[in-house]
């Protein structure tokens, strides 16, 4: 509380900042201060020259008519004894220190202003008000041609700041009550004692005082030359700024901690190996905690430690043989203080390792441990390693532990990111290699297919020549046999029995042999023709265009209409979406599957064939031809698309090449083909073709004699 509301002059050109400062002052101070707000340096000087006596000036050093320290220099001659606190938007400690050196009482950063800050500011305000009151009294006493020394002593003694008067020999000749509190000594113990600090008139410095209880405080000291008891002396004004100094030190430590974390995260981006990331972290930890040497290690699958990085000074301080020393850093059993920190999963500070109950000593040649900081590393809720820092001068404290823990989190993140990057890079390399191998394998397969197709085409053509010769020879043999028959029938009588016997042989044995030979030639010609078709199906150029599958299937059924009618078969065609491909090749696919369904009908029931499709699979349509025929055994389904494999050993005509051609044509369209079948129930052959981007919704109506109800079972 104040005896009267404080009077403040606020010099701030930003209206928003000014409103914020006034609000914070009202919240922090009781009673709220009386604030006069001006926006320019000229207005502030005019106000100071006026009749109003201000207790303190809050001065923004960046104004429209002045900037930076020039603002402070310009206003100081007009402020008299009024305290000035500099406000700056630049987070620059050096700028604030320079402002105090020039004559400001204090400085505040705008981005750190809050109610707590202004509550601390209230102490400065009380000091300023008190100092203003005392200065007013001093001025009044000067106008009365100086008051007595006793009155001056009373005024000085009542000052909130510590006041010490030191003679030219550096001995204390006076100390007020506030000074006694600062030194924690009565004035009787101070008088006649050496002050012990340099005194320069007009200087402002910060000094540390060691109290009898061994605590240290920081005081801001301002020195002016004066006279005391008629002799030259120095008056030192002391203000306890320990709390502010500690706050500034905490800010500085936080800044250094953030700098170290940024160093780990940013420099890890350019590291190529995990060991480089660990060395970066160790370097940052050494710089942050001022340790002599350190180690970063990771727990392996056996729960032992593998070293990732060790500091250079650590190696230099080690007298172990290098080959032996390296083995100590791999597969290390975490015992002693190291194991203690890992078992308890928390940072461990030991400033006298030799006397710790968990200590187990060091290997021969290892540098002695004077202080130790162990920081467990955690990832995915488990301990994964440790950072070990050693031999900081003066030992470690809780702040060092907080620094190490923060740095450990950053290191784990950087290491995890680097491992992810390395894993991705390895996978990309593997994929690239696999892609190259796949391309080479595909190229080999394509060459092999071309060679097989070329060989098949050449062999088919070469086989035609002997077959033509066989066919010609068979024809000549038949003609010769006809001539023999004619001559035998014209022989003279008397030999009829012998002639009849010869004719019987010709009519039976020779004729059977000729028919067997002709059937073999015909079958060979069919097989050769099939092989030529199979070869052409792999070599002929295919076009790609939209196909009206509905119309194509109707055309295929029309071509096979006579067979369908002979077998009294029923065919139903569901609406079919258009496909993209070669119309002639797709016609051969559908024709072959329909013909197979008719060939392999069940002898005990009428054939029912359904042609339909299901929903698109990505960019492909799936079409199927379903029948209620003989069906296919599970063991045979794996072989039916091979060359020369018949669907069933029977008297049904065929060369066993049709389904192989169908498979090749479907695959050349980028599709797939398969069959689902149950013996004595029926088969469903399906194949996929590329879909057309824009499909026609309308389909031609089916003729009544080709379609049956879609819901009719295939039995």
Outline of this structure?
This protein has 715 residues and is α+β, with helices and mostly antiparallel strands.
Verbal overview:
The two termini are 104 Å apart. The chain has 20 helices and 22 strands. By secondary structure, the chain is α+β, with helices and mostly antiparallel strands. Strands 2-1-3-4-5 form a 5-stranded parallel β-sheet. Strands 7-6-10-9-8 form a 5-stranded antiparallel β-sheet. 28% of the residues are buried. Mean pLDDT is 78; it is low at 695-715. Helix 1 crosses helix 5 (115-143) and helix 2 runs parallel beside helix 3.
Q: Features of this protein?
A:
disordered C terminus; 715 residues; 5-stranded parallel sheet; alpha+beta; 5-stranded antiparallel sheet; elongated; 20 helices
**Beta-strand content bin:** 15-25%
Helicity range: 40-55%
Rounded mean pLDDT is: 78
Structural class: alpha+beta
Across the major sheet, the strand order is 2-1-3-4-5
Q: Cα-atom Rg, whole angstroms?
A: 53 Å
> Strand count, sense and closure of the main sheet?
5 strands, parallel
**Total helix count?**
20
Instruction: Give the total of beta strands.
Output: 22
Low-confidence stretches: 695-715
Shape: elongated
- Determine the N-to-C terminus distance: 104 Å
């Amino acid at each position: 509380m104040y005896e009267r509301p404080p009077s403040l002059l606020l010099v701030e050109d930003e209206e928003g900042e000014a409103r914020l400062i006034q609000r914070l002052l009202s919240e922090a101070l009781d009673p709220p201060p009386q604030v006069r707000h001006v926006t320019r340096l000229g207005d502030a000087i005019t106000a100071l020259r006026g009749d109003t006596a201000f207790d303190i000036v809050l001065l923004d050093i960046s104004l429209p008519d002045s900037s930076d320290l020039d603002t402070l220099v310009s206003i100081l001659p007009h402020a008299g004894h009024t305290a000035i606190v500099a406000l700056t938007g630049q987070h620059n400690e050096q700028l604030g220190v320079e402002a105090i050196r020039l004559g400001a009482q204090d400085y505040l950063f705008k981005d750190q202003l809050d109610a707590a800050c202004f509550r601390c500011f209230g102490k400065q305000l009380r000091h300023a008000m008190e100092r203003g009151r005392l200065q007013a009294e001093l001025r009044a006493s000067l106008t009365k041609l100086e008051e007595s020394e006793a009155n001056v002593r009373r005024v000085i003694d009542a000052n909130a700041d510590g006041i010490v008067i030191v003679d030219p020999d550096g001995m204390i000749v006076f100390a007020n009550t506030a000074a006694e509190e600062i030194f924690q000594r009565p004035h009787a113990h101070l008088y006649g004692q050496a002050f012990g600090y340099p005194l320069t008139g007009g200087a402002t410095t910060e000094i540390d005082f060691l109290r009898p209880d061994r605590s240290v405080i920081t005081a801001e000291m301002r020195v002016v030359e004066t006279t005391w008891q008629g002799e030259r002396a120095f008056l030192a004004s002391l203000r306890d700024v320990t709390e502010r100094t500690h706050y500034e030190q905490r800010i500085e430590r936080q800044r250094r901690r953030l700098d170290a974390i940024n160093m780990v995260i940013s420099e890890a981006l350019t590291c190529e190996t995990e060991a480089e990331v660990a060395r970066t972290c160790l370097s940052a930890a050494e710089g942050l905690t001022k340790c002599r040497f350190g180690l970063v290690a990771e727990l392996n699958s056996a729960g032992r430690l593998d070293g990732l990085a060790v500091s250079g000074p650590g190696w230099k301080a080690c007298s172990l043989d290098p080959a032996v020393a390296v083995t100590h850093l791999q597969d290390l059993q975490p015992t002693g203080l190291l194991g203690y920190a890992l078992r308890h999963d928390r940072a461990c500070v030991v400033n006298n390792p030799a006397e710790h109950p968990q200590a187990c000593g060091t290997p021969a040649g290892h540098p002695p441990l004077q202080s130790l900081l162990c920081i467990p590393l955690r990832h995915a809720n488990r301990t994964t390693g440790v950072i070990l820092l050693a031999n900081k001068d003066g030992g470690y404290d809780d702040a060092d532990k907080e620094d190490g823990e923060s740095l450990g989190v950053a290191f784990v993140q950087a290491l995890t990111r680097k491992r992810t990057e390395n894993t991705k890079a390895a996978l990309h390399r593997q994929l690239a290699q696999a892609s190259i191998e796949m391309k080479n394998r595909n190229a080999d397969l394509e060459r092999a297919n071309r060679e097989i197709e070329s060989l098949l085409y050449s062999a088919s053509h070469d086989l035609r020549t002997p077959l033509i010769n066989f066919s010609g020879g068979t024809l000549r043999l038949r003609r010769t046999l006809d001539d023999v028959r004619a001559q035998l029938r014209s022989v003279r009588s008397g030999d009829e029995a012998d002639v009849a016997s010869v004719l019987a042989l010709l009519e039976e044995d020779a004729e059977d042999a000729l028919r067997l030979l002709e059937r073999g030639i015909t079958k060979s010609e069919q097989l050769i023709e099939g092989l030529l078709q199979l070869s052409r199906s792999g070599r002929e150029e295919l076009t790609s265009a939209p196909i009206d599958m509905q119309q194509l299937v109707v055309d295929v059924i029309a071509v096979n209409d006579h067979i369908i009618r002979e077998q009294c078969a029923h065919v139903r065609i569901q609406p079919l979406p258009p496909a993209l491909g070669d119309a002639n090749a797709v016609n051969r696919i559908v024709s072959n599957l329909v013909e197979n369904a008719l060939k392999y009908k069940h002898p005990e029931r009428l054939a029912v064939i359904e042609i339909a499709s299901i929903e698109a699979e990505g960019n492909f349509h799936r079409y199927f031809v379903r029948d209620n025929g003989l069906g296919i055994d599970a063991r045979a389904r794996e072989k039916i698309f091979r060359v020369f494999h018949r669907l069933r050993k029977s008297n049904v005509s065929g060369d066993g090449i049709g389904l192989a051609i169908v498979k090749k044509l479907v695959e050349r369209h980028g599709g797939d083909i398969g069959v689902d079948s149950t013996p004595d129930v029926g088969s469903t052959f399906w194949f996929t073709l590329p879909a057309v981007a824009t499909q026609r919704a309308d389909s031609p109506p089916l003729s009544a004699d080709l379609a049956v109800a879609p819901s009719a079972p295939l039995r």
